[in-house]
Amino acid sequence: MPTTIPSTTSSTRPGSPSAGDAYFETDTKDIIVYDGTDWRSWENDGSFASGSFPSNSYSASFDGVNDYIDTNNKFDFIQQTCEFSVTCWAKWTDYNSSTSQNQSIIATTSTSSQKGLYFYYDSRGGNRNLKVMVSANTAVTLSATGGVGDNNWHHYAVTCSGSGGSFKLYKDGSVIASGTAPTTTSSTAFHTMNLGVGSSGYGYLTDAYLDEAAVFNYELTSSEIDDIRATPYSYIKYTSLYRLENNANDESGANNGTNNGATFVTSTKPY
Amino acid sequence: MRTYVIANSSEVTGFDFNQLIDIDESYSRKSLDGSKILARYEGGQPSFLWGKTEYTHEEILEVLATDEWTPDEPPGK
Hints:
heterodimer; A: seven-stranded antiparallel sheet; globular; B: alpha+beta; three-stranded antiparallel sheet; 1 helix
């Protein structure tokens, strides 16, 4: 006998669910399950779709010396389609430190001569610029002076709409730098995606806290970025999401990370 | 509290990474020419590192910012 799952909609989900409650969302066609803390969603074709994560207990502390998390995946669609987004929360320990270096946030390369993404804070030689480079057929870098600006938590997003399309850097939901994306390349990235280091073995490490780092294979809209950085903290169809809740696991389960020294802390977090 | 020391890379065969923060040699940070390796630990100094100069977090950041450890050419240029 078939079992009929009760139905709801994305705007009328039950307000006080119990762990294990499951519904069919008639508007999104997704199956949603409450895990006791968050709603998890699956598309009707079985692929992971989205999730809302209002509960956040930990962030990850990176010492700027050799702490980093290796996602073990190159996410080659970044330079092969130039259609992607990455998002995360970040808080620098001392954004104005006299010790100058490039501090990587999310990277699959750290040089324009190698393909991939390099999202970093440039504090070299008195610079205080937040930068993001996509190295595909060519390399394009966006730079935002004052993109960090203090030692508080800020939400950052990088979006790219496709080959030769729109390339944007967001801070707290506002575009702070934009340009034209490079054209695509069939090449693979320099290395697997790391959080907290540019290219392991070459420095460019971050002395900061990071949280809720996500990768998408499409361009997020500003509205979707707002949904990520504030209530309901919803991520739609992410490829990988590292919530850094006392581990380096990917919420999708596909690309669990390897943690080399980053410390998970409850003392500071973005929400 | 973390403590940092610098050793010659040839000494890595004597490291017990169970007493260090880095997972293994492949995850460890080395000088650009590969001749030196950074070791990190919490608590007392492991016996295989005895006698080596200990650095605080602030001190080691200054050391690692030098050309010996970090490439001079800014990436993304």
